[in-house]
């Protein structure tokens, strides 16, 4: 059975090996430049001002490397889906469509064994392909990831505001939902699940094309739902809260029109953290009604008294400061710290592998009990 | 032919698709040690019966046993039964040699010499992709796979229906050689009664899941007579003569009767019946429009 499975899978295996080899060549030849830039920026042995060094390094990363960083992420997002579509969905559906399962089932091999060997062997190949790809990409991008973790930002010169944590430019934290999917061991779990999902859809629908469509929809749905709703809860999130004092306030003042805009600046700066929520709260814990969150940070919808320009009253920035200070606004952040990257990777991979194993059981059970002709 | 148990034994066997029963309450025994022909009109349930017997379908009701075991009993049971299905599927992307390798890997009793010999006799290029073979060659390859696993029972579902007369003859020739060499039991369904007549020694006529007649071909032929003589009513025949079909002209009557005793009435012209006459008579005997659908290919 192993021989037949391998013989049937050989063209796909060769294609996958070729693709992996091509990626390996590109990554291996470009990694050296990245690594030497990392060392040159003084990051490999830095004890102080690491964030600055990291930012210098990130600013120096060339366009082709940026393209690779972006491209490999896309590749790792696509690879499990492609495996599910082109290895998983046809695995049994195509045999049923061609009637070749009748050859296989009438050799001296039970259909249970037939299903398990096919699932196991091609499933292992799926996991190996995604795992190797992720291993190569994780290795290649490690200088960029390390620089991000050190607090570097490619936009350090312009600066962001601290309330809304941005990492800027192409270099994002490894915990960022999109980057997370393209690093570490998680892609291995994604490939396993996408593959078995494809096989299951094929067994249930018996048509390769509809199985491919269902696999694509289901897998994309899982990959959207898990990072947004499940992953943040896999480990209890950490909380951060600190006062947003007037001193942190930044005014765009105009003597003629008074304060036009107040940008509050919080003090949450944890490089590599995955911010789940970031709000401004009053001492009672409620969100002030006149502050809304915008992509740039919290903003007042109506300016507080003393910050407005009242006709006939001379505008005094100090009064405005005092008013803000009296509000005792605090920044409240829930986040997953950067150190949770590997625990989250392993937990999520485990969940995906368990789901894949469960679905594999469904496949075997369905093949055993369903009509086959 | 050492096996004393039945090749196929069905008890109240049924298979339902939605509300339609493809086979309902079918009870029959096909003994081992024969080349048994399973005939019947389209929709009689032949393919369903065979699919149930080979484990391709799971019964909705009843049981079926093959060589005394459940069709999907395990590797040991699977090794005892060879099966060539109606459309004789092959792996299109695999070569003929790959198919033989597949058989060698998946069957403990695989006879590689036999497989190679047969492929050689067929003149097939073993490097050729199976998807490029003609219908006849595909059927031969499927039969080779089924034979080389050295089964005790070979089940064939309409194996020659889609073949041209030459390919049909070659296929049956190869089958008969194998039966002679390998001492295997065969159950084959077919529409081609004329072809069946050459190879079968046991007959089962199945209409609407019911066995109309079953028995060894020789004894069936020896107990059926075609009587022609002056016109008379069927009721006037002796009780020992069971009328299967009758037809009348102005002065003449023709009866096909089953009788365990020889016909001695001098009023009759007695003729022996062919297998084809016999099958057609039973198909006409069981009234129903579907009986007209039987194909007679000479």
Radius of gyration of chain A, whole Å: 27 Å
Unreliable parts of chain A: 155-171
**What is the rounded distance between the termini of chain A?**
21 Å
Principal-axis shape of chain A equals elongated
Number of strands of chain B: 13
| Mean pLDDT figure of chain B | 86
Short recap of the structure:
The complex is a heterodimer of chains A (373) and B (298). Chain A is mostly helical and 373 residues long.
Summarize the structure in words.
- By secondary structure, chain A is mainly alpha-helical.
- Chain A is 58% helix and 11% strand.
- Chain A has a three-stranded antiparallel beta sheet, with no helix packed on it.
- In chain A, helix 2 runs antiparallel to helix 6 (142-149), helix 3 (63-98) runs antiparallel to helix 5 and helix 8 packs antiparallel against helix 9 (208-234).
- Chain B is of the alpha/beta class and 298 residues long.
- Chains A and B meet through helix 1 and helix 4 of A and helix 2, strand 5, helix 3 and helix 5 of B.
Map the helices and strands:
The complex is a heterodimer of chains A (373) and B (298).
Chain A (H helix, E strand, L loop, with lengths): L1 H39 L9 H11 L2 H36 L2 H4 L6 H30 L1 H8 L27 H4 L5 H20 L2 H27 L3 E6 L6 E5 L3 E6 L10 E8 L9 E4 L2 E4 L16 H10 L3 E7 L4 H29 L4
Antiparallel strand pairs in A: 1-7, 2-3, 4-7, 5-6
Helix pairs in contact in A: 1-5, 2-6, 3-5, 3-8, 3-9, 5-8, 5-11, 8-9, 8-11
Chain B lengths: L5 E12 L2 E12 L3 E5 L6 H8 L7 E6 L8 H6 E4 L11 H11 L5 H11 L12 H14 L4 E5 L7 H18 L2 E5 L3 H7 L2 E6 L2 E7 H6 L1 E7 L10 E8 L3 E8 L9 E4 L2 H11 L13
Parallel strand pairs in B: 3-7, 3-8, 5-6, 6-7
Antiparallel strand pairs in B: 1-2, 1-4, 8-9, 10-12, 10-13, 11-12
Keywords:
heterodimer, A: about 375 residues, mainly alpha, 3-stranded antiparallel beta sheet, two-stranded antiparallel sheet, 7 strands, B: about 300 residues, alpha/beta, 6-stranded mixed beta sheet, 4-stranded antiparallel beta sheet, 9 helices, 13 strands, about 30% helix, elongated, disordered C terminus
């Amino acid at each position: 059975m192993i021989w037949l499975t391998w013989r049937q899978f050989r063209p796909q295996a060769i294609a996958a090996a070729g693709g992996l080899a091509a990626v390996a060549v590109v990554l291996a030849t470009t990694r050296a430049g990245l690594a030497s830039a990392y060392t040159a920026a003084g990051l490999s042995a830095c004890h102080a001002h690491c964030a600055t060094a990291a930012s210098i390094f990130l600013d120096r990363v060339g366009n082709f490397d940026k393209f690779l960083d972006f491209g490999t992420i896309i590749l790792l997002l696509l690879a499990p889906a492609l495996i599910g579509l082109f290895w998983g969905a046809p695995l049994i559906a195509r045999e049923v469509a061609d009637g070749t399962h009748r050859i296989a089932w009438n050799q001296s091999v039970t259909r249970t064994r037939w299903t398990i060997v096919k699932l196991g062997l091609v499933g292992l190949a799926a996991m190996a392909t995604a795992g190797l790809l992720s291993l190569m990409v994780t290795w290649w991008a490690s200088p960029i990831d390390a620089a991000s973790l050190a607090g570097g930002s490619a936009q350090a010169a312009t600066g962001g505001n601290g309330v809304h944590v941005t990492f800027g430019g192409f270099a994002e934290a490894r915990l960022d939902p999109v980057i997370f999917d393209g690093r570490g061991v998680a892609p291995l779990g994604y490939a396993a699940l996408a593959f078995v999902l494809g096989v299951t859809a094929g067994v249930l629908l018996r048509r390769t094309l509809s199985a491919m469509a269902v696999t694509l929809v289901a897998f994309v749905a899982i990959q959207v739902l898990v990072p947004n709703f499940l992953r943040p809860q896999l480990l209890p999130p950490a909380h951060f809260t600190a006062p947003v004092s007037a001193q942190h306030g930044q005014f765009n003042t105009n003597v003629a029109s008074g304060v036009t805009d107040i940008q509050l600046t919080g003090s949450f700066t944890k490089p590599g953290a995955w911010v789940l929520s970031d709000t401004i709260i009053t001492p009672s814990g409620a969100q002030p009604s006149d502050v809304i969150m915008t992509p740039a940070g919290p903003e007042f919808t109506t300016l507080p008294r003393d910050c407005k320009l009242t006709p006939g009253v001379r505008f005094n920035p100090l009064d405005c400061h005092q008013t803000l200070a009296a509000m005792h606004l605090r920044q409240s952040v829930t986040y997953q710290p950067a150190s949770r990257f590997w625990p989250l990777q392993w937990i999520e991979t485990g969940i995906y592998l368990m789901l894949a194993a469960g679905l594999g059981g469904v496949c075997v059970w369905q093949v055993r009990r369903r009509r086959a002709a | 032919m050492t096996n004393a148990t039945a090749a196929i034994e069905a008890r109240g066997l049924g298979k339902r698709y939605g509300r339609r029963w493809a086979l309902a309450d079918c009870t029959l025994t096909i003994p081992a040690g024969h080349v048994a022909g399973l005939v019947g009109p389209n929709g009689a349930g032949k393919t369903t019966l065979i699919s149930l017997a080979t484990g391709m379908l799971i019964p909705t009701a009843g049981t079926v046993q093959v060589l005394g075991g459940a069709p999907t009993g395990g590797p040991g049971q699977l090794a005892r039964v060879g099966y060539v299905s109606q459309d004789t599927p092959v792996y299109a992307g695999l070569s003929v040699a790959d198919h033989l390798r597949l058989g060698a890997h998946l069957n403990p009793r695989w006879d590689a010499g036999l497989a190679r010999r047969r492929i050689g006799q067929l003149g097939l290029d073993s490097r050729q992709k199976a998807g490029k073979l003609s219908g006849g060659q595909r059927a031969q390859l499927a039969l080779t796979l089924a034979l080389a696993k050295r089964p005790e029972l070979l089940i064939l579902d309409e194996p020659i229906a889609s073949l041209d007369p030459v390919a049909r003859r070659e296929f049956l020739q190869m089958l008969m050689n194998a039966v002679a060499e390998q001492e295997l039991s065969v159950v084959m369904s077919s529409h081609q009664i004329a072809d069946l007549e050459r190879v079968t020694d046991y007959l089962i006529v199945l209409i609407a899941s019911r066995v109309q007649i079953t028995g060894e071909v020789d004894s069936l032929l020896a107990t059926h007579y075609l009587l022609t003589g002056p016109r008379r009513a069927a009721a006037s025949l002796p009780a020992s003569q069971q009328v299967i079909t009758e037809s009348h002209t102005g002065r003449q009557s023709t009866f096909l009767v089953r009788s365990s005793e020889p016909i001695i009435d001098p009023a009759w012209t007695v003729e022996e019946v062919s297998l084809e006459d016999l099958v057609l008579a039973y198909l006409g005997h069981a009234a129903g429009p579907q009986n007209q659908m039987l194909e007679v290919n000479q």
